[in-house]
Specification:
The complex is a heterodimer of chains A (244) and B (183).
Chain A (H helix, E strand, L loop, with lengths): L1 E2 L4 E8 L2 E8 L5 H17 L7 H6 L6 E3 L2 H16 L15 E4 L2 E4 L12 H15 L5 E5 L2 E15 L6 E17 L14 E7 L2 H14 L5 H5 L3 E4 L1
Antiparallel strand pairs in A: 1-8, 2-3, 3-7, 4-6, 5-6, 7-8, 8-9, 9-10, 10-11
Chain B lengths: L1 E4 L4 H6 L6 E4 L3 H8 L5 E8 L2 H9 L8 E9 L2 E12 L3 E9 L5 E11 L8 H5 L4 H4 L11 E2 L6 H19 L5
Antiparallel strand pairs in B: 2-7, 3-4, 4-5, 5-6, 6-7
Classes of the chains: A alpha+beta (244), B alpha+beta (183).
């Protein structure tokens, strides 16, 4: 960690199925870090398909023709997912092949248009949760800091992160870049990976830098699925990508 | 967004050997206990001891206890028990994570804090010498500022081991409570 003009306090908790780290200036108020973790837990409760009571799990259990009332988190993520789907001609598909057009967000109503359509926000919600945690830090008066959800990370203010990439085959890390006021995410897809992309079995290791973590997170999937580190959707969302 | 490449070129960086291991300490066990139970005026060190029948009971509940003895802290305010803190560590593919679980007097999880994180090349983590450096570390490790895992980006680190560990601790505490060991 490199940071200008400040020392930092950081804490980590297991959330979102990974380790989430929050860093704030040493003189930040005591409630900042807790507020950031609470923001992430709030997103997880709404958007995880693994939590039976989540809005997403309720949508997945619906019959065709029915709808649920989507809360602010779900609306925000679905709105972004819709933009990404349209910008990538359906390549970014939160239905994972169960029906890219089988869901429809109308106002706050999330409609299920096709039987069998289920949604998985695993490719986008972690980045959104990081953004929400950053907002919570800023709302508590933090001028700088960072949030890292298992490699989907965002820094703001004076915090400068020295990005390192993990070697997925052998372990260890290598230096990559310095990041300030932005977000970075990496996805790794192989036949043996925990992460899966619908419709591709190609091995890919994709990194994306973007102004917000939602875009960085989601666009790694677009880059990995297309095999194109210059995919037109990147520029549209102010992002840069690398395949390695 | 400010992004400045560190390596001469990414292509070159991709062919370099990995740079190596790193570690971060977030909280000491004492700091975590105080964070979890700010009202506590003292923490009593106890040790849960499980006999053969209880070990069998744990096994039947789907939990491999790993040890028949588990140190635990009881958070007290005057004569009131506020809850318990158990520290544990788990090993993943490339990482060793030490964490603390705070539990209510009824045995429900109230808070989980990661105390330290160690990442290495995959092979080192299984070497006794590499692991030995962490033995006895958790209780005394100071909060070190300035190194962290903020900068690591790779395939998402799975917290399955931690999640399993938390379940194990909840079950251990439940069996101990039922046996009256935490009264």
């Amino acid at each position: 960690m490199k940071a200008l003009g400040a020392t930092w306090q950081c804490r980590a908790r297991p959330l979102l199925g990974t380790l989430v780290e929050v860093g704030v200036p040493d003189d930040a108020g005591p409630g900042c870090v807790d507020a950031a973790f609470a923001a992430i837990a709030g997103v997880q409760a709404c958007l995880s398909r693994f939590e039976a009571g989540s809005e997403l799990a309720r949508f997945n259990a619906l019959e065709a023709g029915w709808c649920i009332d989507a809360g602010a988190h779900l609306q925000a993520v679905l709105g972004a997912a819709r933009q990404l789907r349209d910008a990538t001609a359906g390549l970014f598909d939160i239905s994972c092949g169960t029906g890219a057009d089988g869901w429809w967000l109308h106002g706050s109503q999330l409609h299920k248009r096709a039987a069998g359509t289920t949604l998985d926000l695993g490719g986008i919600a972690k980045g959104y949760a990081v953004d929400c945690a950053v907002q919570a830090l800023q709302a508590h008066g933090c001028a700088s800091g960072w949030v890292n959800a298992g490699g989907d990370l965002r820094a703001f203010g004076a915090a400068q992160l020295e990005l390192q990439l993990r070697d997925e085959a052998a372990g260890g890390v290598r230096p990559f870049a310095m990041l300030g006021d932005g977000a970075f995410a990496t996805s790794h897809f192989t036949a043996a990976s925990r992460s899966r992309l619908h419709g591709t079995t190609r091995a890919a290791h994709a990194s994306v830098a973007a102004p917000a973590c939602l875009w960085a997170d989601a666009l790694t999937k677009v880059v990995a699925a297309s095999g194109d580190a210059t995919h037109p959707a990147l520029a549209r969302f102010g992002a840069q990508a690398w395949l390695h | 967004m400010r992004l400045v490449p560190l390596a001469p070129t990414l292509a070159a960086a991709a062919t370099l050997a990995p740079a190596g291991a790193f570690a971060v300490d977030y909280l000491s066990a004492d700091q975590a206990a105080k964070l979890m139970f700010p009202q506590a005026d003292r923490f009593e060190a106890r040790e849960l001891q499980f006999d053969a029948a209880q070990m069998k009971q744990l096994q039947d509940l789907g939990v491999r206890a790993r040890s028949a003895r588990w140190p635990l802290k009881v958070a007290r305010h005057a004569e009131t028990t506020l809850g318990f803190v158990v520290v544990d560590e788990v090993i993943g593919k490339f990482e060793l994570i030490t964490y603390a679980v705070g539990l209510t007097p009824e045995g429900a999880v109230s808070q989980v804090e990661v105390l330290s994180y160690r990442e290495s090349h995959g092979h080192e983590i299984r070497l006794p010498a590499w692991r030995r450096q962490f033995v006895g570390k958790t209780a005394a490790a100071p909060l070190r500022v300035g190194d962290d895992i903020a900068n690591i980006s790779g395939a998402t680190l799975s917290c399955t081991h931690v999640t399993d560990g938390i379940k194990r601790i909840v079950t251990l505490v439940e069996v101990a409570r039922r046996a009256g060991a935490l009264a």
